[in-house]
Every structure is written in C-alpha cells, then in structure tokens.
Amino acid sequence: MSEDGNADQAAAGPADAGRGGAAQGDGAGAKPGLPPGFPSQTAPAYPYEETHDLRVGPDLHPSLLGLLPYVGVWRGWGKGGYPTIEDFDFAQEIRFSHDGRPFLYYESRSWLVDAARQPIRPAAREVGWWRPQVGPNGARDGDEIEVELAHPTGIMELYLGRMTGTQVELGTDAVLRSGSAKDVSAGHRLYGIVEGALLYAYDMTAMGQESSPHLSARLERVAG
C-alpha cells in the first residue's frame, strides 16, 4: 500500500509502467513514464560535506577521537607475496575521511611497480567503513571496532578488532565470496601510526594455504 492509501497504484508492476509510458507517446521506442510522485528535475548536489582534513568540514564524531591520527590521505610503498605467487612491489594510496557520523570512510588503491618504482599496472582496490563501538552517550564504548571492506574481485569482509593507542588489530569474523572470487577464507591486519607514518601488515588465509604474510607497507601523510 502506498503512503496515500492507493493500493491499486502501489501494486502496479513493470507491465503497468510500460503501458503508462506508451500512453504518453504511442509507437515503437517510446520511453516509459516516471513513476507517480517523482519530480522530473535533477536533484541538487549532495548537501553534506565529507572531509579528510580535520581543519575544515564537520566536527569529528566523539567516538572517532581514537582514530583521529588516521584521518587524511596517505601514500607510500609496500611489498607483497604469498606461497602461491611471486613476490612483488607496489605503491599505495589510502584515504580516511568522515562526515560527522560515527564511522570513517576508507578507500585504498594500489598499483604494481618495477624495481625502479615505475608503475606497471593497477592492483588491488578496496573500500569500506571503520566503526568503533558507540555507547549511549555517543562516545566510544571500549576499544572494540568493526571494519567492513568490499573488493572488486567479488569478496566482502567483516573484521572485528581492538584499538590500543594508535594501533588497530583486526581479524575477519566473516568472508563473503562470489562464485568467481578466489578462495580467500580469512585475514588478519595490523595498522599503526609510527613516527607520523601509517604502517600496516596483512596476513591472509587463501588457496588452501595456512595464514601467511601477504602485504606490508609504509605510507606518509600527503593531505589532511
């Protein structure tokens, strides 16, 4: 039932929508009409600011104060490997931003580089949200944190972990894979801010192997 109580309108299916479009202009190729109640003009730009610079934009949510050193844009170099592949070098950019709500938006993109650190091709990408546990008063409740990550390779991960100072340690609670994704079953990540740099190490359980080191990197702040 629709908000105005018109059950017939709410029950209209795709076929009805198509007939509605035809009524606006009979003939092959007629475009379907807009659903009732939708204005034809374009919506305005998204009105809420998101920032990786704590000097501008909304105030950081109180629950994120423990993650304040992470907010910004980071860029640096890393090394990767696994028992089933050859070792490799990569460059990486990570962005942590916020919009005043109790989570950080996280985006990472990396690219393979040669021995002279020249780019070879794009590599891993991932996006997600870092969510400290929030108490009734809106402040951080303890040191527990959730991190949800999505990858373009058909994998989604839920990490649970703890914050200790500027260190964040995470382990997978669940891994969801599509039918075409590689066999990744678990992960462990350790992040830290050390002498102003962002360092991390990632161990992975995949392809029938036990948990083994996969990625590590050191990134310097370039913005924020």
UniProtKB/TrEMBL annotation:
Pathway: Nitrogen metabolism. It catalyses: peroxynitrite = nitrate. Transmembrane segments: none annotated. GO terms for molecular function: heme binding; metal ion binding; peroxynitrite isomerase activity. Heme b binds at residues 84, 182, 214. Its cofactor is heme b. It comes from the Bacteria. Residues 18-30 have a biased composition (Gly residues). Binds 1 heme b group per subunit, that coordinates a highly solvent-exposed Fe(III) atom. Keywords: Heme, Iron, Isomerase, Metal-binding. Coiled coil: none annotated. Residues 7-17 have a biased composition (Low complexity). Pfam families: THAP4_heme-bd. A motif (GXWXGXG) lies at residues 72-78. Residues 1-45 are annotated as: Disordered. The keyword Iron applies. Belongs to the nitrobindin family. Forms a 10-stranded antiparallel beta-barrel structure able to accommodate a hydrophobic ligand in its interior. In fact, this fold hosts the heme group, which is located in a wide surface cleft. This is Peroxynitrite isomerase.
